[in-house]
Amino acid sequence: MIRVAFFDAKAYDRPSFEHYGSEHDMQFRFLETKLNEDTVELARGCDAVCVFVNDTVNAAVIDRLYDIGVKLIALRSAGYNNVDVQAAFGKIHVVHVPAYSPYAVAEHAIALLLTSVRRIHKAYNRTREFNFSLNGLTGFDFHGKTVGVIGTGKIGRIFIDICRGFGMKVIAYDLFPAQDSGIEYVTLDELFARSDVISLHCPLTDGTRHMINAAAIEKMKKGVVIVNTSRGALIDAEALLEGIKARKIGAACLDVYEEEADIFFEDRSGHILNDELLSRLISMPNVIVTSHQAFLTEEALNNIAETTVGNILSCFENDGVCNNELCYRCGSIERCKKERKEKCF
Ligand code: NAI
Predict the structure, then answer these.
(1) Which residues of the chain fall below pLDDT 70?
(2) pTM for this model (two decimals)
(3) Which of the residues are catalytic?
(4) 79 lines ligand 1 (CB under 6 A)
(5) What structural domains does the chain harbor?
(6) Residue 331 to residue 115: CA distance in whole angstroms
(7) The pairing of beta strand 146-150 with beta strand 197-200
(8) d(CA 331, CA 339)
(9) Which of 112, 190, 201 to mutate to test the pocket of ligand 1 (most atoms within 8 A of CB)?
(10) Tell me: the pLDDT tens digits for 210-233?
(11) What is the pLDDT of residue 330?
């Protein structure tokens, strides 16, 4: 029996994980709390922990997990910027779900964009109160506009396909441009200068943190619409707010926020929000915020559970490879052990 402490569990997580776990000899201990230095003891007696984007998996937590005998950190997300993979190396294996439904995220980005540009959120509220006025609801055609896509991986490419369907002109920036893709790659500065809409689909790294800052906003077109379904810290939220107040930014569609960890995924209605910046952003008529919801489709939840259960099983099989293992050297050393069908350490 493989025992897994499942941190930050939500009602929507359980059915799919219980289903796939029950097909194997795997037992989940569902915990509503997030993993951090104060809660790590709750994993005692478990072989693995299953964590999500706002769990804290820093060196101190990793050392404690190691001390109490946990052998695997199974992320049920694609992004892993919250895990200190270097600290984990040699102690605890780390696996993630590289793709569960890139469609879910790309489609959510489009949903936010359409809602914002065509003022659907405003119209919905108006007609519910029998206010059928159209004043203030003017949008713009997507057709013929330029969309700048930062990060042309799985999600970015699907987003691009959808934008092309609208008849938009697509330009892109990626550290590793996709060969023979027919995508017009430009420098970041050119992307900022030419885009009517900018959508972020790259990971959060030291190099991408605050890539949208005051200097970047300065280079953008007046009225630009910024969409972020990737990671909050790609945007300096204070600079974004200033750009909105200065009427430089036409609209912002945010599924992620730099300081979301203690706020998103929870019902905070009835409480005073202790985040002035987020409150101010939400109060803006041209800002739409969803709380890290882009992944949330039935297909994605099933794929996440199926892949995570498979990842965990593979790591506990004798001499098996850890499916979807991550380490700080992945992609940076010439002869990766994974290519030889071995665990990373
Ligand atoms: P991917 O790994 O397929 O694509 C990422 C792309 O970003 C790659 O083409 C890579 O070359 C590029 N990239 C890396 N560093 C870059 C840099 N400095 N500048 C520009 N491009 C760079 O990842 P995928 O599946 O497309 O996911 C993208 C991001 O979406 C994830 O990192 C994650 O943060 C976010 N995400 C958000 C979800 C949500 O619910 N809001 C759900 C799933 C992912």
Answers:
(1) 333-335
(2) 0.91
(3) 231, 260, 292
(4) yes
(5) 2-100+297-339 (3.40.50.720), 102-289 (3.40.50.720)
(6) 38
(7) parallel
(8) 11
(9) 201
(10) 999 999 999 999 999 999 999 999
(11) 81
